[in-house]
Design goal:
Chain A has 313 residues and is α+β, with helices and mostly antiparallel strands. Chain A is 42% helix and 17% strand. Chain A folds into two domains: 87 residues, Nucleic acid-binding proteins (OB fold (Dihydrolipoamide Acetyltransferase, E2P), Beta Barrel), CATH 2.40.50.140; 175 residues, no CATH class. In chain A, strand 2 and strand 3 form a beta hairpin. Chains A, B, C, D, E, F: Keywords: Exonuclease, Hydrolase, Nuclease.
């Protein structure tokens, strides 16, 4: 994929880009400048606009599409863009914000029908009804939200993409270990991070909501399962087990789960979540790394730099 | 207070006691015996009934009141009762189980009216209505349950007694630090452990319920607050803040709170809970310790032995 | 499966069993007795033989097959056998030790050909040759050893069974995440615990060897890979990567890996190992647990008791 | 309270301020400048004086009062002052350094008489005499020192203010838990941080002394209690208990207490210290935060940002 | 060395031994017995005296010398003595308690003169005078006390023996690293554990005193150094540095040092203490282990079992 | 020693120096500059060359010797050099790179013969032959490599210097504790870090090799010992013990040793390594510190600042 993140130091760019963030600063000597994060589908880059006027500040607000000419240079080990020309793109130019956002590599429709199919495969009607009820209630956001503000699946529809990958992985594992209840695995996967549609602010410029900070997606969804069961009139043990699956999916108290996994499927759900999240992080950093070299350090993987062997292809 | 825990090694007892637990064992040489935990209001003691018959096993089930004669001796550092005579007390003898249970030193009525008064003092109607709704919903159990199966306030009405003590402490602290919102402190205190009426099995022979083990009293009560708000039609920030107070009252993720305290009253609630729980534990072990000596080790206080100074008359 | 572990307290048994361990003791009052661990394919049970003579001590050495009559009773929460009659089985009685050993549920031949097939599927000749060389070198022991002295796969051929399950899981995961190099996964799985044939003493009455204690299976196999490469004249990066896969498969320094995973397949290998080991442990304890009840505490799973839901038919 | 910390970005100030710290720097391009921390009773702000001459360096030493005109701007998320005019204030202008120092909200006299009163209320003469002796010995510094260089009560007379608040809290708690020995609590509160008058350099521009770094206020005061007892001829257990109260008030070895609390009042003293220190930190950051927003991160509170609810009027 | 610890299971002994501890117990069936710990210079062994009378209890108090005949048998992995005959030794029999106590392998006189010599070699008069003052003040106890109640140097004169070994080690290290101030090392070694003469109860049947538990040998000696300096009229930095050496010798807060080492000699003192303590522990357990075997687990060495190679002839 | 690190802020230098590192940067306003690390035998300093041309970039590559005139100034607490004149030195000027590299204070020849002597003193022929074989195999690099990229002994021949110091320390300790096998200590010292000649890139501009990162010097040398034994036909327990010494010398799993020390000499080797590494670090920072002041913080010593007492001469 070509895009802003694929240019090398020293190259000149002439591109349409989306403003993701903008902050105003003042140089040591008192002159105003703007720090602008510009993005396209490939990722983002920081740029500086020196000697910025008040009009500039108004013109270059987040979610504005701009035409930019500039040079890529290196600043403290990361690429930065030195803007030579910049102007907002007029509404009639045929661009839409969605053209500049990184999204899941699978379409929303495809993901939606895949999840529907997995729910259809459930045999336990209580588990099936609660899962279907909740996915329906939050369907629109669920299909658009990222899975996190950073670290992994931090792109449009990242949450649904993470869930779909985990469902496929669950199916494979349940096939190999027949004692696993695939209904519980599927429901656990679909619900485990659904609270993020309340914890996070939305699909773009994603931040934590106040409820996200004070309650968290785990407790939010445990409550939602309780409410769903009440509304559907289900009073069976399945309700408590679904709540437990969500509650325990971070694996340990110190990682945010007030109870550790205490049923078989909860233990395995925690691993399925980990494998998929880590594969996503590894694939992203390794795709930007040449054979025989190391990735940048990955904070959410204990700050490790991974090595890319030379003998692949 | 006199009672079974107040006798010294070598003394002979002749008392009515309640059977708290009974388990059957077999000696090294294959003979059956019963291990019986006997209790009265002062606490409990382990006893052995050797050469126990099948009738004995039937006769000495938990919650049976018995007349016992025996000697106190020391077994591995703890007092044990060697039973010389034992017989069940006939129904007409005028004893009731309640006569043998340790209970809070304040009456249920007194505690109940004190809590009502604190709720009455709340000025924020949303906080007040949710608190009143939940205390009403669980009133009977709340006034009878212990606060835990062991460690602190592990006696009949221990939960309500813990709450009342914490309310008084909250009032004193709010008086000294006027920035504290006493409504939040009172509501936080009343609700923080209320989920224990679902987490625990009941006021006597208390164990954890399955829901207690898999979900826990914190998440149970966070859900209950959400339901109460729905039923009362309250959609204000107060709901989330009350949920946060309950959620965070263990202080840290590794102690079972998926979010740490993030508002002023949540931070202080955690300390109020600690001070009251620790004073209860300290008072119990120190009341059984002579000046110039150490208490037994207290597991929930990092296994410390506390010293009782000699100069407190 | 019927067997010694399937009897309930109070039942009388009349079975052929194998002596797994025997230790002599003395009662408080100075009389000798034997503590005998008896096993069959279902597991093992502790038994006491009171008033044991010197002949008894000689007759009931480990690896002796005996005919036993006795009663199951409960001693400190675990089943124990009270021996009423016991006698060694004469050589001509048609029993062999193997009849009493727990073994993998798949035959050695089947496992062996499955592993051969996975090696055959490898496309990188260096990886393939080293793996084949080492599996050949230790083939006999590899197919008979357990994977551990306790915790998981602690039965005859447990090591090979663990490897075969992990290979199938690797294949499924590599199918879902195409960036993974399946050669590395398969080789990593086959070699990761192969050092256990030197670390452990053998398929039965398994203990740690001195080399196992002082060097450990990880370093043993890292050395073996180096030697194999020397003997095969391979000096490519693949050697180092295979060593790294083995070295890092415990995931963290504090779990015994001097280097954390630093390539994609090493990270995933660690998870595959965990999922298979945990499923084995969970299946074993849950198979002995009734719906609606808890398993015994599992030391290697952070001492948790797992709950078995009631709605799995 | 108005003052330098109450201005917003973009505003112009024209104020008398005190220089708290001054350091000379050189720009990237080799030109000298001064970084000056200016303070008044409301707190402090960083300012830059560009193209500073040698005279400037001499004129703007710490503890100089200056008249400043300048603009507030934002530099990396914190307010900074861009100096437009600055001049030292002549001695005759009627300002004193004390006019610019943040101080406790209660007068020294009031705090002093309150502490005297608490000492007067002690009933145990040994505890009373040692406490009175030490407070007298260090009275002047005790009433002027801060309680720390940062984190909490880091202002003139902060130490005494912290002690007075803790005494009031002790009285309230001792009133609710009658088993507590209020003499020990009061003495523990008064002495617990008194070693800070040796550990710290003084009431302004506070740093750690060498003795503070190498021995620490806890051990310093334990020694002082020993000396005081010697001078007063007291050889009773009270001496050791007072030493223990000071020694253990950080609660755990890893927090700097070589012994954990081992008497009831030591355990509670640790909590009283925590509640008062945390309330001071919380009140300071929350007073600068609008309802519905978060405070800055507070390092000494595990780096948390606290939320200020919207419903407090 | 021959002695009670050198007998093997099955052997019969006929020895004079010292009673170290005695506790009375009751068998399951209610009969009294005595558990007696018997010792000689080689160590100790547990013995049981069944059917003990009241006279027995009086006759076999700690510190009584007895003549015992009995058999060594194994009880739960440790040797135990089954007493066949026992009688107290009459005063005139020519034994003294000291004949049965394990002591340092070097005489008190030799150790005393060695320490005197090291003090004599000090060149800094302040360090020398304080060290000499304190060693003189506690000379008698210092030369007789053990260095601990268990773990290392837990025998008569163990403290002095530990100090002398550390002095020799200090001299060797200071010879190799000339930047080290040997005066500080010697003084640090001599004073570091001197507080144990107050922390511990005495040379035999050693326990912790109340002051030992509540204050600890580190703080006790820091105070003593302060007092010594006062009495000698020394007000130089050396006093604080000596206090720091003692204060920091456990190396980290969590190991009981409220300040970590902050001068060069303090850092090295911590290592010298460790090397000598560990060599003492290792030598003791390895002396009881055959080549090719493992020692018992050593609690104070992270519960490790050490291996004794076979090639040390 | 005079040199670039010995100048004070404000002084002007006119020196020949070696370029250690060079990186190109761009100022905020887009102008290119070079950051150059210059070194001589005393250490290194950072310098800025403003308005750097493309020729400058080519001329001032690492390992170039330059003549520099400039001023020392302070930038964020560290000395920096402001270059006024700089020019490369022509080949004929009689300087060699070695003139500017910090090296061990003892000559390679002296270290080499000392190590030979220690090997000669070994009495166990197996230990001696393996050690001699390996030191011979890597002799050249062993005598030139540093012991680390930073922290301690990070200079030319630092590895051999560290080993020689440790050998002398081992000899002294083995002299005091005669149970120690000096052969094992000497061999352990010589081999413990020898894998660094593969782990690190070389004597100057030292970085980690890929094998260093993925396998590490410990596992590298364990393998080498195995190979050496194979080549020498040694199959005795000594091989395993030497491997264990290397494997365990970091002391704990979390510090990189997959097995903790399990023989006496392994435990002591860990301490000898620590004492020598820490003395090297302490001596370096304290040599740059004035009496009565603190060193810079030392990252590898838990980020402590050490105090230099005033009374050493």
């Amino acid at each position: 994929m070509s895009g802003i993140t694929t240019y090398a130091v020293g190259e000149t760019i002439d591109l349409h880009l989306l403003i993701k963030q903008m902050t105003k600063g003042t140089t040591n000597t008192g002159k105003p400048f703007l720090t602008i994060i510009l993005q396209d589908k490939s990722g983002d880059i920081e740029a500086k606009l020196w000697d910025a006027s008040d009009q500039d500040e108004k013109a270059y607000q987040p979610e504005t599409i701009v035409k930019v000419v500039g040079d890529i240079h290196n600043y403290r080990g990361k690429n930065q863009l030195k803007i030579k020309q910049i102007r907002p793109v007029s509404p009639g130019d045929g661009f839409s914000i969605a053209d500049f956002l990184e999204t899941a590599p699978v379409s929303i429709d495809e993901m939606s029908s895949k999840i529907t199919q997995y729910i259809f495969e459930m045999r336990n009607p209580n588990i099936q009804r609660i899962t279907r009820h909740l996915i329906k209630k939050y369907q629109k956001d669920f299909l658009e939200y990222p899975a996190a503000t950073k670290n992994h699946h931090e792109f449009v529809s990242g949450l649904a993409y993470h869930v779909v990958s985990m469902l496929d992985l669950s199916k494979a594992i349940a096939g190999l270990y027949p004692t696993l209840d695939s209904d519980l695995l599927y429901a656990g996967v679909i619900l485990h991070d659904l609270g993020k549609v309340i914890e996070l602010s939305g699909p773009t410029s994603t931040t934590y909501t106040i409820e996200g900070n004070l309650i968290g997606h785990i407790s939010i969804m445990v409550n939602e399962i309780g409410k769903a069961a009440d509304e559907l009139g289900i009073e069976r043990e399945e309700v408590m087990i679904l709540q437990h699956l969500v509650l325990s999916h971070h694996g340990k108290a110190e990682w945010g789960s007030p109870k550790p996994p205490l049923i078989r499927e909860a233990e395995i759900l925690h691993y399925i979540d980990n494998v998929d999240a880590k594969m996503n992080m590894l694939d992203r950093v390794l795709s930007r790394t040449k054979p025989g070299e190391y990735t940048e350090r990955v904070f959410a993987l204990d700050n490790r730099s991974f090595y890319k062997p030379t003998f692949h292809e």
